[in-house]
Amino acid sequence: MAENKKKRLNRREFLRISGLGLGGAALATTAAAPAKSSQKFKGGKFSDPAGRPNRPWWVKTVDESTTEVDWSKVKRYDERFGTVRGPGFAGYVGEDEVDRLSAAAKELELKGMLEEIDGYTLKDQALKSAHVGYGRSFMGPQKAKTPEDRGVPKWEGSPEEASRIIRAAMRHFGAATVGFVEMNEDTKKLTYAVDPDGKELIFTDDDMASEDDDYRYIPNKCKYVIAFTVQMSTETMRRCPTPLGSQTTTLTYKRSETIQASLQEFLRGLGYQCLSSSSTNAMAIAPAWGVLAGLGEMSRLNRMITPEFGPMVRAFVAYTDLPVATDKPIDAGIMEFCKRCKKCAEACPSESLSFLDEPTWETVGDWNNPGHKAYFENAATCRAYWREGVATNCGICFAVCPFSKKDKAWIHEFIKASSSTAPFLDGFFRSMDDAFGYGVQASAEEWWTLDLPEFGCDSNQPVMEG
Fold first, then answer.
1. Secondary structure of 357-418 in the HEC alphabet?
2. Contact 202, 86 (CB under 8 A)
3. Contact predicate 138/216, CB 8 Å
4. Is 309 helix (H, G, I), strand (E, B) or coil?
5. Considering only Cβ atoms within 10 Å of each terminal Cβ, which end of the chain, N or C, has fewer?
């Protein structure tokens, strides 16, 4: 039996028997490759006036995102019933099926604790339930002193200065990456028509934002969009699909509440408005704004993948009336790699991810917003598996993604660069990812013995020099 086990190769063995070798593979990326690189956080002053970090050399700035968009077909979304996150799920599968799936999830949870199933034990469940949220609000806590309260004029500076200080503040608050977009009549459609709590979002020429029992009013002058990401723990996500694995998502959302409120109070203290989610996944389609702001690209996951952290982030958004220096989309070869990889679709236990060779304009269900070319997922079968199959959220597609590996070894950065500049190597690198055993689910019990950094994440944002 032992002789039939698949042998896991080390990097040198794999590259040697592949016939390509490090020297041969390097030929594909010698053009534009820097002589020296470092992933180590070095500190020092911003080299860019708007505070943009130095990104890997292979991340190119482009005028249009790698996801094609037909804005004439994009519609504003009713978050309550359009998605499968809340009551919309029953609209797709029926109330009786929701009740059945919920009962199945409770049975699985109890079974996991009683039989001490790896990742489902009482201590795993206790860790998941420990993440108590602090709450979100459309206009922020409104407790910080304004410049008027202090008897001074509001802060004034160039758009570049504004972007720089917001980035500095948000990194300090705990954001991973930050980007900016100026809203127009097309991109305004990325704002939900109705929030999860049923309040309609209305754009208005009013000077100040406000809300009542039925509406939230967004001043048209709050047209500057701040998109940001918060890291998830890669090591913890490798323990999915279990309550232990899923709680890194919960922790990330909880951390984002503090970041959001801190950003809103920071801008209030400067004399400006900052509007954001009144609840989780409210106000706007954050990943779409993240793509437009250059934080990442859409993918076969139908989620944003970043050059720095892969899919191991959650995306968030805020609107402000402080003019900022804006960013552009990027092309890091991520979408092109997804066309050939398909590892996430192969690993998806509910078969909810697309196997199409090319993204399509044809949506799968009403939970997908039309007007953009993508790999649309079956969110209903995905959500049903969460309840009946694992009694928690899944995340396998995140964990197995080749872009989920941190650049601890130079070969990871080399592979990402090659994916951007030499897409004909994508199949080879997908095979290498499999041979090294990446993306394999790890022991949940082992997680409790690991010495991980704060929040289970390495907060050193990769930067390049050379």
1. CCCECCCCCCCCCCCECECCCCHHHHHHHHHHHHCCCCCHHHHHCHHHCCCCCHHHHHHHHH
2. no
3. yes
4. coil
5. N
| Amino acid, single-letter form, for residue 265 | E
Which stretches within 271-352 are classed as H helix? Answer: 286-292, 334-341, 343-347
Distance of alpha carbon 369 from alpha carbon 77, whole angstroms? 7
333-383 residue pLDDT tens: 999 999 999 999 999 999 999 999 999 999 988 888 899 999 999 999 999
Backbone angles phi, psi at 228, to 5 degrees: -145, 160
Q: CA-CA distance, 109 to 77, in Å (whole number)?
A: 33
Neighbouring CB atoms inside 10 A of 442's CB total 18
Rounded Cα distance between 434 and 8, Å, is 9
For the chain, the structural domain boundaries read 43-408+444-456
pLDDT at 130: 83
Query: Would you tell me how many other CB atoms lie within 10 Å of the CB of residue 118?
Result: 17
8 Å CB contact between 165 and 156: no
State the SS3 of 223-263: CEEEEEEEECCHHHHCCCCCHHHHHHHHHHHHHHHHHHHHH
H/E element, 314: strand 313-320
Cα separation, 210 vs 138, whole angstroms: 9
